[in-house]
UniProtKB/TrEMBL annotation:
Name of the molecule in the record: Trypsin-like peptidase domain-containing protein
Superkingdom of the source species: Bacteria
Organism: Streptomyces mexicanus
Gene3D superfamilies referenced in this protein's UniProt entry, alphabetically: Trypsin-like serine proteases
Gene Ontology biological-process entries: proteolysis
Pfam families (alphabetical): Trypsin_2
Lineage: Bacteria, Bacillati, Actinomycetota, Actinomycetes, Kitasatosporales
Alphabetic keyword roster: Signal
GO molecular function terms noted in the UniProt entry: serine-type endopeptidase activity
InterPro entries: Glutamyl_endopeptidase, Peptidase_S1_PA, Peptidase_S1_PA_chymotrypsin, TRYPSIN_HIS
Signal peptide: 1-42
Length: 269
């Protein structure tokens, strides 16, 4: 079962994860956020690992946003279906997500960095070009479930590159799984604000890594895994398109395929 919301274009043939206990869940998340001194950061882990909480509105959290079908741009509330994040590139116009979020059906998409409560505080950005690994395009190989997209201003972005507006995390390949804790941030489809959780990833296989973080339900596909140096070392997807339960999530291990895909996308004029 994937972590993609089922509300977007049916052309992608995705399944919806059940929305279980949304009200109780997020009351609990707010209480966790309010009572914890802090959620553990990936750099020094001052708080508990494996705890999910609502994300504070900060400069760094603004680099993570939600994906929408373009025809939902005038009515964002409740219509996001995946998560994406800005990564540094020479053209300063690149976002990272899961391949199963972008697909190749040609549906027009927009990205809203820092999306909260039906608003796009940093504007909407149109997905202009998509870069998916050959393994995914050919047969949806789970070891190829990552993708990049070049985005351009659509609404309220004042003609700037997205990285000039919100900054970008560095995309890194070859990092050892579990070398440091990482923070996963994403948008469940039952929530209009992002959640995050910090924990140490574990090896699932030579090509897949997993992390134990509760309540990452539908809509969190594409969530970045970010270490304490603001490096993206994973993206929620991969095995079972993210996982069969909301409490354990997966990512492709970023290796040679990911490095080549980034090189191609970053060189796009």
């Amino acid at each position: 079962m994937n972590r993609t919301s089922g509300i977007h274009s049916p052309a992608r043939h995705v399944r919806r994860r059940a929305r279980t206990r949304p009200y109780a869940l997020f009351v609990g998340l707010v209480l966790i956020a309010a009572t914890s001194a802090s959620v553990a950061s990936a750099s020094d882990a001052p708080g508990p690992l494996g705890v999910t909480a609502v994300v504070a509105d900060t400069a760094h959290s603004a680099r993570v946003g939600a994906l929408f079908d373009a025809d939902r741009a005038d009515d964002l509330t409740g219509n996001h279906f995946c998560t994406a994040s800005v990564v540094h590139s020479p053209q300063r116009d690149l976002v990272l997500t899961a391949a199963h979020c972008l697909g190749d059906d040609g549906t027009d998409l927009v990205f809203a960095p820092g999306y909260r409560d039906g608003t796009a505080p940093y504007g909407l950005w149109k997905v202009e070009r998509r870069f998916l690994p050959e393994g995914w395009s050919r047969d949806q190989d789970e070891d190829s479930d990552l993708a990049f997209a070049v985005v351009t201003p659509d609404k309220g972005a004042q003609g700037k590159a997205v990285e000039d507006v919100v900054g970008g995390n560095r995309f890194v390949t070859g990092a050892a799984t579990g070398a440091t804790a990482v923070t996963v941030t994403g948008y469940p489809d039952s929530r209009e604000t992002p959640i995050s959780c910090t924990n140490r990833p574990k090896r699932h296989s030579a090509t897949q890594q997993r992390i134990d973080c509760p309540e990452f339900t539908g809509g969190t596909s594409g969530s970045p895994w970010i270490n304490g140096e603001h490096q993206v070392v994973g993206v929620l997807g991969g095995h079972e398109q993210g996982g069969s339960t909301p409490d354990t999530s997966y990512s492709v291990v970023f290796g040679a395929v990911a490095a080549e895909l980034y090189k191609e996308a970053a060189a796009d004029p």
